[in-house]
Amino acid sequence: MAASAPSSSAGDPDPNSTNLRPPSTTYDAWCGVAHGCTRKLGMKICGFLQKNNSLEEKSRIVSALKEQSSKNELENSERDARFRRTEVDFSNLFARDLLPAKNGEEPTMQFLLEVVEILTNYVRKTFDRSTKVLDFHHPHQLLEGMEGFNLELSDQPESLEQILVDCRDTLKYGVRTGHPRFFNQLSTGLDIIGLAGEWLTSTANTNMFTYEIAPVFVLMEQLTLKKMREMIGWPNGEGDGIFSPGGAISNMYSVMVARYKYFPEIKTKGMSAGPRLVLFTSEHSHYSITKAGAALGFGKENVILLRTDESIIQTHERPHKSEKVGIHTWVSQGNPHDLEAKIIDAKQKGYHPLFVNATGGTTVYGAFDPINEIADICEKYNLWLHVDGAWGGGLLMSRKHRHKLNGVERANSVTWNPHKMMGVPLQCSAILVREKGILAGCNSMCAGYLFQPDKQYDVTYDTGDKAIQCGRHVDIFKFWLMWKAKGTIGFEQHIDKCLELSEYLYNKIKNREGYEMVFQGEPQHTNVCFWYIPPGMRGMPEGDERRERLHKVAPKIKAMMMECGSTMVGYQPQGDKVNFFRMVISNHAATRSDIDFLIDEIERLGVDL
Amino acid sequence: MAASAPSSSAGDPDPNSTNLRPPSTTYDAWCGVAHGCTRKLGMKICGFLQKNNSLEEKSRIVSALKEQSSKNELENSERDARFRRTEVDFSNLFARDLLPAKNGEEPTMQFLLEVVEILTNYVRKTFDRSTKVLDFHHPHQLLEGMEGFNLELSDQPESLEQILVDCRDTLKYGVRTGHPRFFNQLSTGLDIIGLAGEWLTSTANTNMFTYEIAPVFVLMEQLTLKKMREMIGWPNGEGDGIFSPGGAISNMYSVMVARYKYFPEIKTKGMSAGPRLVLFTSEHSHYSITKAGAALGFGKENVILLRTDESIIQTHERPHKSEKVGIHTWVSQGNPHDLEAKIIDAKQKGYHPLFVNATGGTTVYGAFDPINEIADICEKYNLWLHVDGAWGGGLLMSRKHRHKLNGVERANSVTWNPHKMMGVPLQCSAILVREKGILAGCNSMCAGYLFQPDKQYDVTYDTGDKAIQCGRHVDIFKFWLMWKAKGTIGFEQHIDKCLELSEYLYNKIKNREGYEMVFQGEPQHTNVCFWYIPPGMRGMPEGDERRERLHKVAPKIKAMMMECGSTMVGYQPQGDKVNFFRMVISNHAATRSDIDFLIDEIERLGVDL
């Protein structure tokens, strides 16, 4: 191990500070002089000095610095505590040498700084378009072990040097989801404030279940949920809510709460205590509604899928410019008439309609169900209305686009994932409920060892018992910090910009040779769905042969993209439609040039297919 | 904003690198000279130069450096990219000035380094016993706003200076869960390798659902789960598993999978397609089993609680030294005889026994159910056996203590939370299942937009469809990295040390004046449960008055501990037992002196109660 300079500030001597070097070396003598200079600079110079052996050299530099220092004011004492890097040989250090080990402070700080250097270099390169999005390898290649990178675990410890190599390699063989040309998921981008928030969250390493051990985070969650409820439009932002591990779990909460509202005895007696309950959601909605139905004991076949009507678009192009604001008859909507017909049908069969999910931004098309029309039907039949705004909820932050969710204030519950459209790091998903206290009613088990009623503070702030989890990760801080740093207007600008970019893409390709749009009309969200028709296929007549060939185009182009690492975009089939590209934009680093790049890349890779 | 020096390495020119300073200043001229020196040193000196105005001074230093550089070899080009701190005025910078903003690289790096300084100072102080564990404030105090710290969110952005203050204050008013004297939860301690792993995880910011976007993490999860299954003792480590957001969800998985195994049609048709299913678990087990029963549609009353028999301890003191290894007749066990009686009773009522949960380390007592005895009964009646080793599973890493889980290899599923006894940062919980493929069978919905069968790689590595989540946080990396860094033997040492410490505590207080143990005999895990009897109560006769007074002692001492911030330990009532302290040790920073401190503190604070 190399040198150590005192790390505590002069004004605040730290009894626990350690000095790993043997005392009284020549180096220390010189270093002491350097420290006599302005402290921070002294420490930096110190790092230089230890690597140089010419005393004459050192003498000259140090005396120059010393003269300099006498002219400088004493620096702010808080600044004094700043870290500095020294050269440390990590090949002889192990995890056991780090804190809480005796004399562990210096290697701990040096190790963490080394990690931070790896991470900041990664961040820097992620935003650099000359960096590849990924360096693709097949599973068997990574499993067989790349040079110096072996995934296997063993009984014996590895040196910290190897651990640092492992960190570098983990990033090297991963995917840069923050790269300006990564368009593969609904969650993209690397927000620097959010990143800082995550680093702090993991350093705090606490748990959301009680105010006792997460006082600040619990209050941040409470305030942020209230703000979100205000944006939904519930009076005074009243209601309930919690951050959950993702939109699927948030949607599961909505079904649980609906069941508890109408049939509270099911909590105690089970599903057999109620009638045969049915749930409704559109065939284009997220699969998590059906998954929740299966998990919670309703059964998949009691989740009734509503037909969507893509033809309606023909008569309502650009509905947000019509006067019918709030009725977004659009592709992929849950057709309200079909909903009412299916409710009546279910009742006639003796089933009990319980719950309707309206999607605010479907996963593939980005379509918004007509919430107001659906809400009318829910009110008429006394059903729970949930809005799955996992993907589209972010549009509530935009004055220009929030009308697409008109009627959301009539929902009983809303899923909203800031980790999607709002660029918050994974994971960050909220379930918001209009009725206060119902989450606790639904989920509480009153475990005495966690939720003691006789604490010295107001225990209504202990939120653990309203969750289906016990321990719960702190997902709020990064989001709260981003909101502080950007303001509501910052999120609005981000969202408006992403929607403008998707409009740019749509306009660029809608009449371009070799492209066919999957649905007609301008997208409501940033989803642009299209087929690319390679030149060799352009004259082919419609029919099975063309369909089969077209079905293979997107997977082939995607595979080539991944292998050359230039960009990533999703594709999938849907219903009777063969594989098509689904372009989505939530990445704040993306620009028009990246959209142009994507199109060029598709054409370059697809030319011979 | 202050200066910027080129940050890319000389050998690898970066076309996107930015220089925030206007060109051709005197500063740049000098800086260029400095850069001509060894590059890394040049950058450091550059930071110094920009703060000094004397050209003569600069001239002298720079020429010294230049001479020096000619003697030095070219430095490793990777090292060249190292960061350095400069003085930046963050009060005029905002989130919008950071990457991906034009010229955003320099402020981004400086901002992140500033955050890292806050975090490393926090880490340093966390391990310093002169630091308080917490600085307690009531919810209303924090909500009203502390000086300079306002939790409210607004429309307009805050400066990065304010964001940094917010980061500092968030930590200041939080709880140091890594402090050597924080004993409040099953998850304590701050592992430096785990922390580095979390920082990397959030920088990678990806999602576990497909190999496509998390290739390395998906493979790490697969290998680590296999290793855990090997430690459980399943042949060749075969089976299934997934990391989930906490032990409660892992336990919920076990119930879902059991139901799917015996009644797969319930996935499609709902609970009404099966008989009335009942689950069994001990009254001392974690409440998440009952919670799962309520959520999944079984109903709370179909989760049958088994009596525990604390008297058995009298005849089997130190059972692990007897020959009956594997039959841990101990306090808080799920009494096997009661289990069989209740199974028979349920069948007679026409119910269908489905599932038994045996706890490997109960939350309050740390007791281990006799797994082999329970497994015998499960086999006899063809029931699913789950072992909830959320807290005790870590003991499988210890050759000395793993016998407490003897029989675990007979379980059908196991919950094991590395974030508890193994000190992995939150969250890290695994559900492990003996039968391969059953998680996917139970949960798959085959969403075409995520899990395309026509990808270029082996899509069996796409794990998303076996989860109840859609997106899933990367919980594996920190754990994998810790395992690499410590080796299996490092975890073993950690666990053995924590158990030794609890033995030390037990021996210290078992006969000490003023202490009564809640259960007799040596604890099996690190849980030491005791009442402290203040001097003024020591002569009191047994009875309601004494009970009522004793019930208030632990909450009062705990409140005082929190208000002076010296230490934290949990308390709770259980059954007919009034509030008692539950001491647990999972913190690798704790030593005997911290145990002594805790006892001194209880006596100091409780003397007048």
Tell me briefly what this model is.
Two copies of one chain form a homodimer. By secondary structure, chain A is α/β, with parallel strands linked by helices.
What does this structure look like?
The structure is a homodimer of 609-residue chains. Chain A has helices at 26-36, 39-49, 55-71, 77-80, 105-126, 139-144, 160-172, 192-204, 215-232, 247-262, 265-269, 288-295, 336-348, 371-381, 438-443, 476-509, 544-564, 592-606, and strands at residues 182-183, 240-244, 277-282, 303-306, 352-359, 384-389, 413-416, 429-433, 515-517, 528-532, 568-574, 577-583. Chain A is an alpha/beta fold and 609 residues long. Among the domains of chain A are: 1-84, no CATH class; 236-447, Aspartate Aminotransferase, domain 2, CATH 3.40.640.10. A 7-stranded mixed β-sheet of chain A has the order 2-8-7-6-5-3-4, sandwiched between helices. Chain A has a 5-stranded mixed β-sheet with strand order 1-11-12-10-9. In chain A, helix 8 packs antiparallel against helix 16 (476-509). Residues 1-54, 65-81 and 312-332 of chain A have low confidence and may be disordered. Chains A and B meet through helix 2, helix 3, helix 5, helix 6 and helix 7 of A and helix 2, helix 3, helix 5, helix 6 and helix 7 of B. Chains A, B: Its EC number is 4.1.1.15. Chains A, B: The modification N6-(pyridoxal phosphate)lysine is found at residue 420. Chains A, B: Residues 1-24 are annotated as: Disordered.
As a percent range, the share of strand residues of chain A is 5-15%
Fraction of residues in H or I helices of chain A: 40-55%
Shape of chain A: globular
Number of helices of chain A: 18
- Within CATH, the superfamily of the domain at 236-447 in chain A carries the name Type I PLP-dependent aspartate aminotransferase-like (Major domain)
Could you give the order of strands across the largest sheet of chain A? Answer: 2-8-7-6-5-3-4
- Structural class assignment of chain A: alpha/beta
- Average pLDDT reading of chain A: 86
List unreliable stretches of 5+ residues of chain A: 1-54, 65-81, 312-332
How many beta-strand segments of chain A?
12
Through-space gap between termini of chain A: 58 Å
CATH topology of the domain at 236-447 in chain A: Aspartate Aminotransferase, domain 2
Major beta sheet of chain A, specifics? 7 strands, mixed
